[in-house]
Here is the input.
Amino acid sequence: MLGKILKKEDCAACRFCCSFRRTSLWETPIFTKENIEAIKTNPSLDETVLNVIEKDGYCFAKYDLSGQYKTDDADEEVPCPYLGENGCILSDDEKPWDCKIWPLRVMNKDGEIVVALTPTCPSINRLEFAYVKDFVSVNLKKDITEYAAAHPFLIKEYHPDFPII
Ligand code: SF4
Ligand code: SF4
Here is the structure.
């Protein structure tokens, strides 16, 4: 969604958001029921990495990377199972919304639903925050907020270092 202000070449060299340290496992993407169905119908994809969860009438899935760390190094990163040599191997239907809106997050801050910016994306954080905030507010915030309201299992708890848009 932020492709207009994120440079493709920066992302190709970075790939940070498709690998996870232990401290960022809370950020592993959530797959909607529609994502799961699309992945299931694609024989080239491994659906067995997804743990399907039924909660509050919603069906969604996550993968669990917690057992895959090989060292005690806090900086060790484990890649998403759907990260290929040339980036994400998922189609638009298969790709989680979390990944589509990154580096934005929808979070619950003391009961208020907010759109926030991750502090960890080097590319977006090279831009003026006011510029990013204005771009998101004008182009994306309404749609993102409405989608999250209809899919509340996608809303994450607020982390204090995430600036609010
Ligand atoms: S962290 Fe930011 S710069 Fe790096 S790949 Fe993700 S979106 Fe691109
Ligand atoms: S699903 Fe694709 S975009 Fe999302 S973390 Fe995995 S490789 Fe990256």
